Records
---
Amino acid sequence: MLLIKRYPNRKLYDTKNNRYINLDGIAELIRQDIDLQIIDNASGADLTALTMTQVILDQGKKMGGFLPHTFLTSLIQTGNEKLHSLKRSIPSQLLIKSQVDEEIKKRIEKIVSTGDLSEEMGKWLNEKLSVDGVNNDFTDSFTDNQLELILEDQNIPTRQDIDSLYGKLETLSKKIDSLRDAKLQEKI
């Protein structure tokens, strides 16, 4: 574990490499998946979480605020409960992202295999529609109507189609449950 000491003048010192380091340097170490601990040189108190929060704020300033206002408000209002909930949900969200990307890839490959879409266009669409590599310039280059027409032409279901399907599944599930309950009541 890399030990970083924070001095009273707020300077951070990398004890392994014997050099001062700034918040950008800390961010880079974290991106490189280097396990680190930041302690107060005078008291020995663990300042890792506090410093990581500063890194997030610093990165946010540079990127023009990359965390939504509503998320930050909610985080402040709910405190640690929200943090623990977020910590538990991140792995499942990452899994969902990879599943969505895989589904997008499969559908595009299927359209390419039928000859309705060129291989080059398929690769381009796959890059632009990837959830992991969210790319806002793709959606900026099309109006909503143009994008809707492209998706409709390729028989790709819309959010409304999926929501409708979920609604129908829920209704069907309720009917099955009521039939099962009725059968159980007959047996009694």
---
Amino acid sequence: MTGRDQLIEQSILEYESRLKHVDELLDRAHHHQPPAEVAKELEQARHERQKMAAHLQEMRRKPPEHWREEEIEMAGPMGIWDAVAQQLEKLVEKLER
């Protein structure tokens, strides 16, 4: 495996880790009866999660030779994933109080 292939694999693993964290937060939220405004935000977070999962699937299927250098170095739109996770963390904290 080349260094480039390792970087690609590392990027995919980072996305998988973040998706798992989002899934864990959604699972925790699912165990509560959220108020209407929180339920709406949770539904929006679930929708974002589906988009993230679809993006991850695309990454997994993409042959290494089709990856652009900036995709490897930046690991894609990781900031969006982090923002979704932070929003979910706040919602779960509200529900667990």
---
Amino acid sequence: MSLLAIIQNAADRLGLTRPSSVVTSSDPLAMTLLGLAQEEGKTLARRHSWQVLQSEYTFPTVGETSSYALPAGFDRILVDTVFNRTTHRRMVGDLTPAQWQESQASQVTIINPAFRIRGNLFYINPTPSVSAQTIAYEYISKNWCQSAAEVGQTAWASDADTGILDEELMTLGIVWRFKSAKGLDYAESMTNYEMQVANAVARDGAPMRIQTDTDPECDAPRFNSGVVIGTVTDGAFD
């Protein structure tokens, strides 16, 4: 569904005249609805780690290089997903500023490498001494909408843009935000919106169920997928 269709759908539910254009329009109503659509998209993207916004990124280390660029569209890293695939070790982080400075000043050798994201760069400690080791992690993209050519964007830029996030949620968000902005009774509309967001969060992805019993041939908990990935000792896969 295009941005224009989302705005027109919201206008229908609000009993307003459908705008024929949005992004290039000078009509006050269209401009208001566009502003609310921008607000809704940005806010909804940060409500949850939506699976549709999750991506994987890998890069090779370069000897004696400690900092690396983040992927395009990076918003935030997913916890416990950073690994050195070459050495099969989990990387510790994202360290706080205090923890990072302590790791820099410490004379103790770090068993598992640490990382910190600062100034839009991904830092590694200790600095890799060799090249071509593969670092991998998952992250949330900040691109919650896209162009007609499916290029990710952080904001609506054209009437033909489409949503990456659930467009019905965006429509409901625009409706209650418009009522609130105009001093109308928006309580019921906002309650309905929040219920739909909660339902969408509950349905998002496919969480793995962990059984509390153990496999008699393995000390690790069994997963309902029937696949045992491995055991971890000191952050390294055995």
